[in-house]
Specification:
With 268 residues, the protein is of the alpha/beta class. It has ten helices and eight strands. The structure holds S-adenosylmethionine (SAM). Keywords: Methyltransferase, Transferase.
């Protein structure tokens, strides 16, 4: 197939990518036939997948606004994805102009598209890196140029830790960033779970082994333990729609349909 202009040379056009599949679910344009086919197959098992992704983006908006309301003005967004509407810098800078944001992703399409979007924005940058190596990420130029280590940071991990298959590595990754930031910083996580979907979830997990990002759902206790040593912000570790909905109309009768836990925790 012909390479689209937005797909850098290192992109394998025959293999679905988690970043581009997610872009397709959200109605974006940076996906290939192989990603769309993959996404449609996963939807045969879990037709609610696009809704889950939108619910995740809504949690991203609410939690970033919450962090801004707590005085956070700098953000490290790990596994930031292919930009879509309502990105972290738009929300943070919209609420508090001058807020600084560094995006990190290992997907070349996500990074190339972020670069285009951030052109001319002096307070936001993107880094192509594997977030499982906090030491390298924290030493990288755009991170150090924009983030001030004496001020609290919002460390954001939306829908990315379930792509780290080894639980210990997931824990070490979180700790690597939280150890480097000062007291008063926040960790925000959304993380897939298959506690209520049974065999339908297993089918999706089997499909994801075909991508560069096998999917590893975790239960509520495992997600909670990622924030060990931090202070959980109320209401704790809950399904996405139940984390501080904007209005009573947004309260869901079946929040477990999001198959994703949300949590915000503070370094004390
Ligand atoms: C489902 S998307 C989530 C995007 C965004 N955080 C959101 O919630 O809207 C997951 C993203 O994590 C990225 N990712 C997965 N593993 C990663 C790793 N080890 N380091 C950096 N990025 C990673 C993928 O490339 C993809 O863009």
């Amino acid at each position: 197939m012909e390479r689209p202009t937005w797909a850098p040379g290192e992109v394998d056009l025959e293999r679905p990518s988690a970043a581009r599949v997610y872009d397709y679910y959200l109605g974006g344009y940076h996906n290939l036939a192989v990603d769309r086919e993959f996404a449609e197959q996963a939807m045969l098992a879990m037709p609610e997948l696009p809704l889950i992704m939108r619910t995740n983006r809504a949690f991203l908006r609410r939690s970033v606004r919450y962090l801004v309301s707590q005085g956070i003005r700098q953000f490290l967004d790990l596994g930031s994805g292919i930009p879509t509407v309502g990105n972290v810098h738009e929300i943070a800078q919209g609420a508090a102009p001058g807020s600084r944001v560094v995006y990190v992703d290992k997907d070349p399409v996500a990074v190339a598209h972020s670069q285009v979007m951030l052109d001319g924005n002096d307070n936001a940058a993107v880094l192509l890196a594997d977030m499982r190596d906090p030491e390298s990420v924290l030493a990288a130029e755009p991170v150090n140029a924009l983030l001030n280590w004496s001020e609290p940071v919002g460390v954001l991990m939306f829908a990315v830790l379930h792509f780290v298959d080894d639980y210990e590595v997931a824990q070490q990754t979180v700790r690597g960033y939280l150890d480097a930031v000062p007291t008063g910083s926040y960790l925000v996580v959304s993380h897939g779970t298959h506690e209520t979907v049974g065999e339908r979830g297993k089918q999706v997990e089997r499909l994801y082994t075909r991508t560069d990002n096998p999917f590893t759902p975790r239960n509520q206790a495992q997600v909670s333990r990622l924030a060990d040593g931090l202070e959980l912000v109320e209401p704790g570790v809950v399904y996405l729609p139940s984390w501080r909905p904007d209005s009573p109309e947004e309260v869901e009768d079946h929040p477990e349909r999001s198959s994703t836990y949300a949590m915000v925790a503070r370094k004390v």
